[in-house]
Amino acid sequence: PDLPKLDLGLTIACFALFFCDTALFVRNEGIHVAGELALYMAITAVAIAGCRVTAKQVGLRLGTKEALKAPRNLRKFGDQSWQLVVHLLMTAYEVLLLNRNGWLWWTDTRTLWTQPWQTSGECPADLRSLYIAQLAIWFVTAFSHKFVEAKHNDYFVMYGHHVATLGLVSLSYFNGWQPIGLSTLFVHDSSDIIVDTLKMVNYLGYDAKSGTFLAEIFFALNLVTWFLFRMYFFISKVIRSTIPKDFFFPGWGDYDLPAPLVSPQNACRVLLVVLSLMHLYWYGLFLRILVRLIRGTAGHEAGREYEGSSDSEPVLGLVREGTDLKPSTLVPFGRSRLDRVNDIHGRIMQKDAEYM
């Protein structure tokens, strides 16, 4: 593909969403709501900066000597920390909102489209606050991805993910589909907690080589939670509820309102499918890493392709800086699993750090 044009297209789409959302807020709810979005974005930017500084100090005290040999590990630990804080706070708020209606939106997806306030356009204040906060966070994240952060191998996949998410959040808010949006946000934010923790313990050097095995434990947990939330729940709860009733299978689908081919409903369906394909792509990279760990063969190729599940960083020390880099060789047959895992950290190509 023409990457410069793709980059430009994604950037234009991101700015277009920002200005369209601002204009719609002003038209539908008043200029004070657009100001609220700007305030949330400013608070997010300040909180990110403060979290990075604080996390770096924590990393200095908790990181292993090997991990601290490379300054970038500490910087990445700080960068990842604010995302963990965001995902923890957003998940807690989303659980609170789901719990207020007895998790009915989660257990009976038919109720996602039958709320009396959906036709009036008067979104409950607590749900509205969640949306304003999420839009602010995602706009700041997208702009940071484009203009601040270093470019990684999955730059375009991540940029597309940010734009698709912003499109979904915007469409669901302005069309009265906040309940389905809440479920979508919950699936993503809750599963990202394990991903963020995995990356952070990896940057601190808490892996098999240090004797803690924390990176390996969280990697195994991530294989389970990613599949459960991003692939099973995302399809069975979110995508299925947007399909017209009995469209594919009898009893499958909850949406029973007619819509033309070119419509916000179909735009949302397309974006949901795009996100689902991205989830599948990243899970495939996770499995490639797992296969190489089990076989005891060099895992750097998967580590270089996978530069973060949701926010573009590698896992399991496969590309972590400060590693003793040696040419790749096969692990001798009969070595223990611990030896094989430890040896992976010493068999990464010397140029891998350039991709960070």
Automatic annotation (TrEMBL):
Which keywords fit this entry according to its UniProt record? Membrane, Transmembrane, Transmembrane helix
The compartments listed are: Membrane
Q: How does it sit in the membrane?
A: Multi-pass membrane protein
Question: Which GO BP terms, alphabetically?
Answer: ceramide biosynthetic process
Gene Ontology cellular-component terms for this entry are: endoplasmic reticulum; membrane
Tell me the classification of the organism that encodes this protein: Eukaryota, Sar, Alveolata, Dinophyceae, Suessiales
Q: What organism does the UniProt record list as the source?
A: Cladocopium goreaui
Q: Which residues form a coiled coil?
A: none
Protein name, as recorded: ASC1-like protein 1 (Alternaria stem canker resistance-like protein 1)
Task: Please state every residue range assigned to the domain named TLC.
Answer: 80-295
Report a single Gene Ontology molecular function.
sphingosine N-acyltransferase activity
PROSITE patterns to which the protein is assigned, alphabetical: TLC
- Asked whether the UniProt record includes Signal among its keywords, one would answer no
Where it mainly occurs, coarsely classed, is: membrane
